[in-house]
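hey so i finally got around to running the thing on that chain from the lab meeting. sorry it took forever, my laptop kept dying and i had to restart like 3 times. anyway pasting the input first so we r on the same page abt which one it is
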Amino acid sequence: MTKEPFDIETLKLISNKLDYIYSIAKSNYTDNPELMDTIENLAKAANMFAIIKIQELNGHVETSHPQGFILLKLANSYSRMKDYEKKKENDFPAWEL
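ok and heres what got predicted. didnt touch it at all, straight out
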């Protein structure tokens, strides 16, 4: 039998910290909307992984469609990062010889 690499109490701690990260990003959204939105979505995606793992360890998965939720949150963060990358490329000065 393989030893489980996670325990419920640690996963609950991880989930609480991710909730905290999410709430700080949410409450400071106006400081830097793109960054805070990215942080919010990544924290929510990571928290869903933790929640599902807790449910698996308890022997009953209650959350429906966690994969779709995670993909949605990651898609938003991925889009934000792609936009950021494009902006940085456009901000770079043209080379002149």
